[in-house]
């Protein structure tokens, strides 16, 4: 099937930041066949069926947004611990989270994915690290939800083995043994990981954080990931409390600890990275370690302002993340485009911190690089996967902003008139096509209530 999109502004987010005020896209199968100014060629190859032609007047075409860090299960605990920093927030919520089961995780994942899809996300990564005993296949529940909604998915199989009795933060009943965690992670890779160009599902190895994981598990997780050829993910340098924990327990800061345990490299990305020195930034740049920047969650938990302008200037791969919806209750990535720019301008670089186009790049090509998929998606170029979003910008909220990229980033959330994942429509005219939104909301509400009553 060939799809032709015409009469729209286009921000390709390619290496040259090529833009067209009035352009076209041609999509054949799951790939972009052509992108350029003006109308599409009339003499398109005949594949046996007439192409679908879309008049996208008043819209901006961009690559689909890419979410590099999330915790889907937290959809069921939004709005709690509203005035806490990270450690107190975790202590307050761990007892509830440790009671999740497969049904709850599936409902939460469907809701999280549906919310992101409606807001222009075409690829998402989720970091799931709580696996209570006897509660079913929690990772499988997320994978099934992603398949139902139709988004490209990186499932980061997390783990925790450092309970409170050993000096960690999570309660003892919420952690696994090292052997169990590694065996389950290896099984997830062997069962689900697809390394192919058009892959809809990849697995990453993702012990939770320095304050919930032993050094042995960190080291062995890195060894497993590299033996299997998959990526590594964890939280890093999120708060001053984490930095203090690392100095007290390991005698060094988070970045030095990651270097010591084999956790810096082009196959690694870290969530948050708020509290970083110049040496830390240089280490990330030197090793190609990526960053999932979560500005709304960083603000919600009073973590601080990440040094995104400095990271970008040093050449560090940076993408955007929603983070869990217990610390970012909106649960969609468009907010992060805007907040990445606004929060950065509160820092020392002020008005020169980020531009609207840099914010869009963070949410698209930057995210693709962070997830190791920069050659496949993240920009609108011939040969890349047809993960494309059309944002309608001629309505009340945007019609007087002449610059379409500024309208998207700085304006109110723009309606998604079409979202394609591998050329397949997932959202059209603001409506999710792959599942019933009312059923998703109703089921999530019921599961949230069941979780609250079990706590």
TrEMBL record:
Keywords: Hydrolase, Metal-binding, Zinc. Residues 61-400 form the Amidohydrolase-related domain. It holds the Pfam family Amidohydro_1. One of its GO terms (molecular function) is deaminase activity. PANTHER family: AMIDOHYDROLASE-RELATED DOMAIN-CONTAINING PROTEIN, AMINOHYDROLASE SSNA-RELATED. This is Cytosine/adenosine deaminase. It comes from Streptomyces harbinensis.
């Amino acid at each position: 099937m060939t799809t032709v999109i015409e009469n729209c502004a286009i921000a390709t987010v390619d290496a040259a930041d090529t833009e067209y005020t009035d352009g076209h896209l041609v999509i054949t199968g799951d790939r972009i066949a052509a992108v350029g100014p003006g109308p599409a060629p009339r003499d398109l190859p005949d594949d046996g069926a007439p192409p679908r032609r879309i008049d996208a007047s008043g819209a901006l075409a961009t690559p689909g947004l890419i979410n590099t860090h999330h915790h889907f299960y937290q959809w069921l605990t939004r709005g709690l611990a509203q005035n806490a920093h990270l450690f107190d927030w975790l202590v307050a919520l761990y007892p509830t989270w440790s009671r999740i089961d497969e049904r709850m995780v599936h409902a939460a994942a469907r809701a999280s994915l549906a919310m992101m899809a409606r807001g222009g996300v075409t690829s998402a990564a989720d970091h799931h690290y709580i696996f209570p005993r006897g509660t079913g296949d929690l990772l499988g529940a997320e994978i099934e939800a992603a398949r139902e909604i139709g988004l490209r998915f990186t499932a980061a199989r997390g783990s925790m083995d450092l309970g409170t009795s050993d000096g960690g933060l999570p309660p003892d009943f919420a952690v696994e043994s090292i052997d169990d965690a590694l065996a389950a992670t290896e099984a997830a890779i062997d069962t689900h990981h697809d390394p192919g160009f058009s892959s809809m599902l990849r697995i990453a190895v993702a012990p939770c954080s320095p304050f919930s994981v032993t050094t042995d598990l960190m080291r062995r997780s890195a060894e497993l990931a590299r033996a299997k050829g998959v990526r590594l993910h964890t939280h890093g340098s999120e708060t001053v409390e984490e930095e203090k924990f690392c100095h007290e327990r390991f005698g060094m800061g988070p970045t030095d600890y990651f270097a010591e345990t084999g956790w810096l490299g082009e196959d690694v990305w870290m969530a948050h990275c708020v509290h970083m020195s110049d040496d830390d930034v240089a280490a990330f740049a030197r090793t190609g370690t990526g960053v999932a920047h979560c500005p709304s969650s960083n603000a919600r938990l009073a973590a601080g302002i990440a040094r995104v302008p400095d990271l970008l200037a040093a050449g560090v791969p940076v993408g955007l993340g929603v983070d869990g919806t217990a610390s970012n209750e909106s649960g969609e990535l468009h907010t992060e485009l805007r907040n990445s720019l606004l929060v950065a301008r509160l820092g020392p670089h002020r008005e020169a911190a980020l531009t609207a186009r840099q914010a869009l790049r963070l949410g698209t090509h930057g995210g693709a690089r962070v997830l190791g998929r920069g050659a496949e998606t993240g920009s609108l170029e011939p040969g890349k996967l047809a993960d494309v979003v059309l944002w309608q910008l001629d309505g009340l909220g945007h019609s007087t902003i002449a610059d379409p990229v500024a309208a998207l980033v700085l304006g109110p959330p723009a309606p998604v008139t079409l979202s394609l994942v591998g050329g397949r429509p997932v959202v059209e005219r603001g409506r999710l096509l792959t599942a019933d939104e009312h059923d998703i909301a109703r089921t999530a509400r019921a599961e949230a209530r069941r979780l609250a009553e079990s706590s």
